[in-house]
Amino acid sequence: MISIIGAGNMGMIIALGIKEKVLVSDSDISKLRNIKYKNISIARNNIDLARQSNIIILAVKPQDIRGVLEDIKPYAKEKLIISIAAGVTTLFIEKVLGRIKVIRVMPNMPAMVGKGISAISRGRFAKAEDFKIADRIFSNLGEIVEVKEKMMDAVTAVSGSGPAYYFLFTYLLAKAAEAQGFKKDLALKLAKATFIGAAEVIKSKNLPIEDLVKKVASKGGTTEAALKVFKQEKLEAILKKAVKHAAHRSSKLTT
What we know:
- By secondary structure, the protein is of the alpha/beta class.
- It is 52% helix and 15% strand.
- It contains 12 helices and 8 strands.
- Strand 1, helix 1 and strand 2 (22-25) form a beta-alpha-beta unit.
- The mean pLDDT is 94.
C-alpha cells in the first residue's frame, strides 16, 4: 500500500498521479473532507496510515516533519519512506527513525499537468530497487533526474521555486505591455503566448539557448535594445542572487 501523509497541493497531485489505491492522512480534517476520488482512501490518523502501508510519502511542511516522524516511528521499520519536504535531509529522517530506507524527492508545480521534473536522491540505507519505486511513482508526474543529495537545496531553488519565477516574469512582461498602451487582457495574452511558444521552441529545437537568443536578437534591432537594458541592470546577477537566497533558505528550513 502506498500512503501519503499530507493532503496539500503536492500531496494530492502525487496521489492522483499514482493511479492506484492510495491511503492519505492530514492533520487538517477539512482537506480530507473534500477528497472525492475513487483511488484515495482516508486514514484516521498518521499511525493508522503507517500501520497499513509499506511505502509512506511525506508531503508535509518542513516545520511539521519531526512530529510526523515521531508519529510513525514505531511502524516505520522495513518500510520505504519517501520525503518531498524541502530542506529535510535523509540524514535528519534517519536520525529520528533509525536505519530506515529513505528517498528524498523534490518535485515541482508543473507536475499537476504531467509536465513536472522531480529530482531524486537516496539515503544511506535505500537500495537501487527503492530508487526504482520512487522513479515509478514520480515519473507519472513528468521527468526524473537523480542528483547527489548535497545538491537538493539548489534543486529546490531552481526547479522547485522556478515556476514562480516564470509566473512572475510573465506577469511583469504583461504589466510592461500595459505600460505601452495595451488593455490588461490583451497584454496578458501576449505575454503568456510568447513564453509558452518560446518554451516549445526550446523543447523542439536541439539548439543552445544562446543561439536561440541570437535568432531573435538581430544586430541593431529592437530585441538587442531590450537585452542591453537587461545587461545594464544586471538581470543575470539578480537571478543568481535570488536562487542563492532560495537555496540558503532551503538549507535552514529544519533549523
